[in-house]
Specification:
The chain is α/β, with parallel strands linked by helices and 361 residues long. It has 14 helices and 10 strands.
Length: 361
């Protein structure tokens, strides 16, 4: 599964790498709402949450469906600006139907790849938004009711909330991270100019790739969802210091595609693909392969040694080893006429974090 953004015929100048204060605020708010997703940000989330005034914390809780389990498209601007105020001004220009539909993205998750009517004009979507909000709690339900009844007033409330967050904690945070994000965006832009888009896309995230063939060109984002855009008129890449392990892709019809990618962390290594994680989980799920891994973790073994240890045939051992090898879990080396197999402990050690990263990506 993956998200595919068609960029056939798109000139390079229409592909932009640029930081966005609004997008970074959205990422920071998500980290505050879901600190368990962001262990590396523990110090920041703990300190910031403790310093929030109760009134602001309550308001953030009311509206957290816009950045909690999903990220509202209104928080991923296709035209990044220098300041949060400028991006909020741009947001004010959006019509109510589009704004409310994007803000209440909880109501259209299953329809997102194909587009969904706004709850302001579609009664089934309206009922769905209210039902899903009710499941999240009475304050969220009341907030959605207000948004559907008074879009202008609620939009003004959201703007004040984001401005208050900026005053309370984000302006200082943005001054600290914007230099890193701007440097990353410049690096990707220069990489695209010198070595091409494929190099820049892969450098932004190993979970992304550029595919080119006779049918055209596509940016492919490795995610546990399926989606595809029509030919894009432009694509914006937004680096984030708060994003890992998430990789967000805005690709719904009627919106310019936007990808928010976490800036590189030297400690993370390469991100495993969803396919690789699936193969590895399936490989170790078999009870006999689990037992073989026990021996292979302790040292190198030949096929015959494993067959003898577990009282199974050599061909059966070979079949299990082939599955483990295809999943990249074992190292094989030849010593004379013997072939020795050993578990790649470093890969297995990453399996838990790779799985978590895949489902959160």
């Amino acid at each position: 599964m993956s998200v595919t953004i068609d960029i056939t015929g798109l000139p390079p100048e229409r592909i932009t790498f640029c930081p966005s204060p609004l997008a970074e605020l959205g990422a920071a708010l998500h980290a505050l709402a879901e600190p368990a997703h962001h262990a590396r940000l523990h110090a920041w989330t703990t300190t910031t949450a403790a310093a929030l005034k109760p009134e602001l914390a309550d308001r953030l809780h009311e509206a957290d469906f816009m950045w909690n389990t999903t990220r509202s498209d209104i928080l991923l601007p296709a035209r990044p600006r220098e300041t949060l105020a400028e991006e909020l001004d741009d947001l004010d220009l959006m019509d109510d139907e589009k704004f409310v539909g994007a803000a209440l993205e909880i109501s259209c998750n299953s329809k997102y790849p194909h587009g969904a009517p706004s709850p302001l004009v579609d009664e089934p979507m309206r009922r769905r938004a209210l039902d899903l909000a009710a499941a999240r709690g009475p304050r969220q339900s009341a907030f959605v009711e207000r948004m559907l009844a008074d879009p202008p007033g609620t939009r003004a409330w959201i703007r004040r909330l984001l401005e208050d967050c900026d005053e309370a904690f984000f302006s200082d945070t943005w001054r600290r991270v914007r230099i890193q994000l701007a440097a990353d965006a410049r690096h990707k832009t220069e990489l695209m100019r010198r070595k091409g888009l494929a190099e820049a896309v892969t450098a932004a995230s190993p979970a992304m790739a550029l595919e080119e063939d006779g049918r055209g060109s596509r940016i492919v984002v490795d995610k546990l969802v399926q989606g595809r855009t029509a030919e894009a008129s432009a694509v914006t890449f937004l680096p984030t210091a708060f994003g890992w392990p998430h990789l967000f892709a805005l690709y719904t019809p009627g919106w310019q595609p936007v990808i928010q990618y976490p800036v590189a962390d030297r400690d993370l290594g390469g991100a495993a693909s969803v396919e690789a994680v699936t193969l590895r989980l399936e490989a170790v799920a078999h009870p006999m392969r689990m037992r073989l891994c026990r021996s292979l973790a302790r040292g190198s073994s030949t096929t015959s040694e494993l067959a003898d240890a577990y009282n199974i045939t050599a061909p059966e051992v070979s079949r299990h080893l082939a599955v483990l090898k295809k999943a990249g879990l074992i190292i094989t080396q030849r010593r004379g006429r013997y072939v020795l197999h050993q578990l790649d402990v470093s890969v297995v050690a990453r399996l838990g974090s790779d799985f978590l990263e895949s489902v959160l990506r």
